[in-house]
Amino acid sequence: MRYLFHAMFNSILQKYLKISPGNYHMVELVQESSVALIFKIISMILGYIFALLITRTLGAYTMGVFVLSITLLDIFTIFGKLGLENASLRFIAEYSAQNKIDIVKEIHSKVIMIVLFLCIFLSFLMYILAPILSKDLFQNEKLLQSFQIISFALLPTVFLIINLESIRGLQKIKQYSFLQNIPGPFLSISAFLILSIFYKVEHLPLICHILGVIFLCILSFFIWQKNVFQQFRATSNIIQIKILLKTSFPMFLSSSLFMIMGWTDTLMLGFFCSEEEVGIYSIALKISLLTSITLYAVNTIAAPKFAELYGKKDSDGLRQVAQNSSKIIFWSSFPLLIFFILFPKLILSFFGNDFRAGSNALIILSFGQFINAVSGSVGYILQMTGKEKIFQYIILIAALINITFNFFLIPRFGINGAAFASMISMIFWNLSSVVYIKLFLGINTLYLPMIKKIFKI
User: Fold this and answer.
1) How many other CB atoms are there within 10 angstroms of residue 67's CB atom?
2) Domain edge (last residue) among 218, 239, 260
3) CA angle (271, 275, 276) in 5-degree steps
4) pLDDT tens figures, 74-115
């Protein structure tokens, strides 16, 4: 059975992806990304189960409070990480490939020290600002306790993210994918099922979430220590903190700008249009983003590969991984994208007949995701090869384009205007990155098999 599986796997590599089974990097990329995809799908299912438990047990209002609280946590988490999770991923992947475990351990220790003090300050700030945010911003004093409770989740959340990206940098992809996707929602569901027997308060989902994060944070520290437990001892001042911050800050800005782009269309729709249109657009956007699951799965293993090969100065290996990862992303997402473009009304009708009004928006958003798919892992290539500042500037321009187009198009075209603004900004940052990578790294990540022969791409 095992040999049969390997034979089928090798046949797929050769026939459809044109990849030799002897190509170690690409075989690993396909195998590990497949595992990451499975774990991600399980995570999504568990997430829907947790949401269903909350709404059925405590109602839609409690679900709304939970979502708002987690959103607030996500905002503060971006500032708490300061881009250091991506810097850790890059440097740890680079130095672990060279077996410099002393440097790897030092990088992790210094990053943990930085975020420790930063997150203590931000948690305190989050707690203090809770009355202002609940009363003045959301005009609901009942949110006060929820915002204060979730402030205690910031430190373990950031620690967990740093540990996970560090484990990912060590190329422990199965451990990373499992820890990132499965235990968190599973523990939250388990805690909710047990505690809801005795307590039915609106803060219960938040408490369960925090318990899950704390347990997972502790577990991630144990797994990190197990992976780096070798005879080497950390040597001081090999990697200076200012170097880590110099690398991480552009990554932090890029993450912040992505967050702004993700919210701009929804916020402006809420300002210019009705709540019904916001809801329709939200569903269309979520459907179009389903194709990003495969992008996530491939990037899980591709990102540390980029850093490893760049650190080894293996330009041929870097080119092969970049181009073949584009192939995998394209062929795994293309059928789904075509289905969304051809049958948008059918898909949206599952959510109710009113949602069919979002069919044009779904087509527009899906085309943007198509360009995202054919461009490959451009963001990670730039950030893992020391071009994080370039990527920061590209995303800054894309964010300005997004805000400008939303401002002018939404009042006139509604959700279709918001979808067009998102599509244009996505096309800009993807193709700009493709052009830069081609010109300065000599790698063509754009994969368009249908017109390859015509344009000789």
Assistant:
1) 13
2) 239
3) 135
4) 889 999 999 999 899 989 988 888 888 888 898 999 999 999
